[in-house]
């Protein structure tokens, strides 16, 4: 047969071999035994070295893999050719970007008819995935070992219930040594009443988190949390249990549960729990036809204690008062604290109001006993409002409201007393509700306006500014001063909207005066605006002022803000920051009615202020009252020494003017200068000057 006839068949066979070789996941190459030139390479082998199946042919082993790599594996090639045996080895072959890569190389000799090697076949498998997986397992086990030693939580491994490994925290938790725990059945560490639960979890092989209890070596029961998992370690299937000591957590939860129902400071029932228990007692009283009395107790002038002695001493006073309340009542009575200095008491098992009065007298007497605070004896008095079930209400909220209303009437009567609820009190509360609605309508109907009272320099009589005073032109009641409605506005938060209206109206007026030239020839002509406590304590109050100035196209230098001493002391922690922000906007900050509050000299030096206004109660007693002279003169000299401007309010006579000016008072305001006037009248008054 002609060999040429076999050529097509060989060609087909070669093509099939090449196709198969190209699609195998291995790299395959054939090198001549003598020249080490490449005789064949599949696609994977060629592309691994950046070549093609054609361009790689004829290149030597060293040309393809490089001289260094060739020299490294030459001993293996020599062994294949000399000993005519296959050789296998692994080699790390990093990628161009440095990524690790491992290959497994098999060198297989191809022998001729005479038994001599004619070529060597190279078969390479990429084993990177296997090596990375092995590395991950080793690293995971190493991390687990480190974690077991480093973590503060107990970790225990067991097989079929018998301990195989345990970390030091677990040993410390139960009081056994490592040697004592290894090989011991895990159920022997479990509290007897919990063995059944733990045994069932082990039987089912569940992976979960649950609470149980273990026994310390000394017999102490320890509540714990188990986190159970099944895992392999060193090729062995084990159960791992993370053991967490939850004694602190359970104690915290119990504390939180207590706090959820009790006041943190006094330990009395809080509002929610008091109301819940009160509702139950009211249902019982309804079934039995019994009488109950709700007492709403508020401490008189308690803020003075906080302001003068600090909140820690104030807390001590509250604690002492709560103990006295509990001590003066029966175990069947409910006592709660609603917050601040407000306490509530529900009296049960009453026959008549006379029984309530006996308790009221007792409470007044025990609370009035001086309380030791800061080494001093302080007298704290209560004002108590009383609402009786079922006469004054059949619902808990209704009784609370009526007792609260009665308490305010008790305060109005002079404090340190009690007041039973009466229907007329409800009528007053209703009147306040109506007034609240009218106030809201007054804002929308533009019924409010500002009056202005002039302020002048003491030495020259030159106009320096004016105080803006709010008035309400009520459609039925006529012109009203703030005394008629401010209390209701403050109680129902309408003061925020009303206060912002005053601020904006003052800013617009200040701008109008400058546009009209009214301020020419006068001093700075600032308009002073009285702030409410609610306004000043509002978060972001300085931002509100800036917004009003921007919207009014007014400058801060045109306005002065007046605050009372009480407002500053009530927020002494944050007041300096707020005052600094206001002054940064250009506004002048003044303390109004100085001498009637509780500002200490230390506070006065710490607060960023510009002016003090002496309360007109002192000025009115001048020049005849020696005591008023001493106090007023001291205030003026102190303020001047601190670099503050001093304004005297309520100046009515030339003698007062002369005396105050002689002491160094710089500005005056009062009837001698001018009474409060509507804007148009004030502007005419200024022009006439």
From TrEMBL:
Domain PAS as annotated: residue spans: 13-84, 140-211
Domain PAC: 87-139
Cited CDD domains: EAL (cd01948), GGDEF (cd01949), PAS (cd00130)
InterPro entries: Biofilm_reg_signaling, EAL_dom, EAL_sf, GGDEF_dom, Nucleotide_cyclase, PAC, PAS, PAS-assoc_C
Domain EAL residue range list: 432-689
PANTHER family with a match to the protein in the record: BIOFILM ARCHITECTURE MAINTENANCE PROTEIN MBAA, DIGUANYLATE CYCLASE DGCP
Protein name, as recorded: EAL domain-containing protein
Organism: Pelomonas caseinilytica
């Amino acid at each position: 047969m002609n060999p040429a006839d076999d050529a097509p068949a060989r060609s087909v066979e070669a093509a099939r071999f090449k196709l198969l070789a190209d699609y195998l996941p291995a790299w395959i190459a054939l090198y001549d035994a003598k020249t080490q030139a490449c005789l064949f390479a599949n696609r994977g082998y060629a592309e691994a070295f950046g070549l093609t199946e054609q361009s790689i042919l004829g290149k030597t082993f060293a040309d393809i893999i490089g001289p260094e790599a060739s020299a490294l594996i030459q001993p293996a090639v020599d062994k294949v050719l000399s000993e005519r045996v296959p050789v296998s080895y692994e080699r790390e072959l990093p990628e161009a970007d440095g990524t690790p890569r491992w290959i497994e190389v098999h060198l297989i000799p191809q022998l001729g008819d005479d038994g001599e090697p004619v070529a060597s076949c190279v078969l390479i498998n990429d084993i990177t995935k296997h090596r990375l997986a092995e590395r991950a397992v080793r690293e995971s086990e190493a991390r687990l070992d480190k974690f077991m030693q480093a973590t503060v939580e107990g970790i225990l491994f067991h097989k079929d219930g018998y301990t195989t490994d345990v970390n030091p925290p677990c040993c410390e938790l139960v009081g056994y040594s490592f040697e004592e725990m290894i090989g011991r059945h895990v159920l022997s560490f479990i509290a007897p009443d919990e063995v059944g639960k733990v045994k069932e979890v082990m039987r089912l092989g569940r992976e979960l988190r649950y609470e149980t209890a273990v026994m310390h070596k000394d017999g102490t029961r320890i509540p714990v949390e188990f986190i159970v998992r099944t895992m392999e370690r060193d090729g062995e299937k084990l159960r791992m249990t993370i053991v967490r000591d939850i004694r602190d957590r359970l104690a915290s939860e119990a504390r939180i549960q207590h706090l959820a129902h009790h006041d943190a400071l006094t330990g009395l029932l809080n509002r929610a729990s008091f109301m819940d228990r009160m509702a139950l007692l009211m249902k019982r009283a309804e079934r039995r036809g019994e009488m109950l009395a709700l007492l709403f107790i508020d401490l008189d002038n308690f803020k003075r204690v906080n302001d003068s002695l600090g909140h820690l001493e104030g807390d001590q006073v509250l604690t002492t008062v709560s103990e006295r309340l509990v001590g003066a009542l029966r175990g069947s009575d409910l006592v709660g604290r609603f917050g601040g200095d407000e306490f509530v008491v529900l009296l049960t098992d009453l026959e008549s109001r006379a029984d309530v009065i006996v308790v009221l007298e007792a409470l007044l007497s025990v609370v009035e006993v001086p309380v030791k605070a800061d080494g001093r004896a302080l007298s704290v008095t209560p004002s108590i409002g009383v609402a009786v079930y079922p006469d004054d209400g059949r619902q808990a909220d209704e009784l609370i409201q009526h007792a609260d209303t009665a308490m305010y009437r008790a305060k109005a009567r002079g404090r340190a007393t009690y007041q039973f609820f009466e229907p007329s009190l409800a009528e007053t509360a209703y009147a306040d509700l109506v007034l609240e609605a009218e106030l809201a309508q007054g804002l929308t109907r533009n019924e409010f306006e500002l009056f202005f009272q002039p302020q002048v320099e003491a030495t020259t009589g030159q106009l320096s500014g004016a105080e803006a005073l709010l008035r309400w032109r009520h459609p039925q009641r006529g012109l009203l001063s703030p005394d008629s409605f401010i209390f209701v506005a403050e109680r129902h938060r309408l003061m925020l909207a009303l206060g912002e209206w005053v601020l904006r109206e003052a800013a617009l007026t200040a701008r109008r005066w400058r546009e009209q030239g009214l301020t020419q020839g006068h001093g700075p002509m600032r308009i002073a605006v009285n702030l409410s406590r609610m306004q000043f304590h509002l978060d972001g109050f300085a931002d509100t002022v800036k917004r009003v100035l921007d919207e009014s196209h007014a400058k801060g230098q045109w306005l002065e803000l007046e605050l009372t001493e009480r407002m500053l002391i009530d927020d002494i922690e944050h007041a300096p920051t707020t005052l600094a922000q206001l002054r940064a906007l250009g506004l002048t900050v003044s303390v109004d009615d100085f001498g009637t509050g509780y500002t200490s000299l230390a506070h006065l030096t710490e607060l960023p202020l510009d002016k003090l206004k002496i309360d007109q109660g002192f000025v009115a007693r001048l020049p005849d009252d020696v005591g008023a002279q001493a106090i007023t003169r001291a205030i003026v000299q102190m303020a001047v020494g601190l670099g503050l401007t001093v304004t005297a309010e309520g100046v009515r006579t030339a003698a007062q003017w002369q005396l105050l000016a002689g002491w160094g008072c710089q500005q005056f305001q009062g009837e001698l200068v001018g009474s409060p006037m509507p804007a148009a009248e004030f502007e005419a008054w200024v022009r006439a000057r």
